[in-house]
Design goal:
Pfam families: DDE_3. The chain is an all-alpha fold. 55% of the residues lie in helices and 0% in strands.
């Protein structure tokens, strides 16, 4: 799976995937609705924003992100994985347009 970005479509990447027998899924370009990492970043960002006191320096932010990443509930990731069937179905229904998710 990729977002059709040019680096993901480089010939060397295509050659490697083909040599490993890995086929690509058809994927709408720039579909944030089908990119679960966006939801993961959101959950991580919300966790950092709930911290008190909030990170004041770049080093504090780095530390907070690393701590919150380790504490991230595996249920969040599990939900993102299981929701992909629904997301894909909805995306096909609206022919790649934004889905209300």
């Amino acid at each position: 799976m990729d977002d059709n970005a040019r680096p993901h479509r480089a010939a060397i990447v295509d050659d490697f995937l083909e040599s490993e027998g890995i086929s690509r899924m058809e994927w709408p370009a720039y579909s944030l609705d089908l990119n679960p990492i966006e939801n993961l970043w959101d959950a991580l960002g919300r966790a950092v924003c709930r911290r008190f006191p909030p990170p004041a320096t770049l080093r504090d932010l780095e530390t907070a992100l690393q701590e919150e990443w380790r504490l991230l509930d595996s249920a969040v990731v599990g939900h993102l994985v299981t929701s992909m069937i629904i997301r894909c179905t909805l995306c096909m229904k609206v022919r790649g347009a934004h889905i209300p998710y």
